[in-house]
Structure to design on (147 residues):
């Protein structure tokens, strides 16, 4: 009986992992994105064409990846809030950068651009054009600088 139970648990874990890894990617149209994502694209990237919109759904979460014709990549959560903006080598639009982070970067690195911005539940990660990576907590306190 114990062997059957172990097998059943392993089988369920395998199915969940398989679904999470490859079952949920779907190419879609921009009009099918959550409204918040559509608004962000229109307000901040309207001068660029969308090359790809993809929905990534797995067992635990859904997110959306958008690739623009200049190589910019933007990831959105299930509600359409951005979680990652990668504009390398161009600068992330200033209006999308939290003011405290933008002020810190301008003051500390005046000749540098923010080229990637990631927002997680408890922190922000910022990649600069001089190849430094800054990590801030959710209150915008600098935690770490990596090169």
């Amino acid at each position: 009986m114990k062997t059957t139970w172990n097998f059943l648990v392993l089988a369920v874990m395998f199915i969940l992992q398989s679904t999470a890894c490859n079952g949920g990617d779907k190419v879609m149209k921009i009009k099918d994105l959550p409204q918040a994502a559509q608004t962000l694209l229109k307000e901040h990237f309207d001068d660029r064409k969308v090359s790809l919109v993809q929905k990534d759904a797995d067992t635990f979460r859904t997110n959306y990846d958008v690739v623009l014709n200049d190589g910019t990549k933007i990831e959105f959560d299930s509600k359409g809030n951005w979680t990652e903006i990668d504009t390398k080598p161009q600068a992330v639009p200033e209006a999308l950068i939290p003011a405290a982070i933008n002020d810190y970067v301008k003051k500390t690195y005046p000749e540098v651009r923010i080229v990637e911005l990631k927002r997680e539940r408890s922190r922000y990660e910022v990649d600069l054009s001089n190849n430094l990576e800054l990590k801030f907590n959710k209150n915008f306190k600098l935690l770490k600088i990596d090169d």
Summary: The longest strand covers residues 50-57.
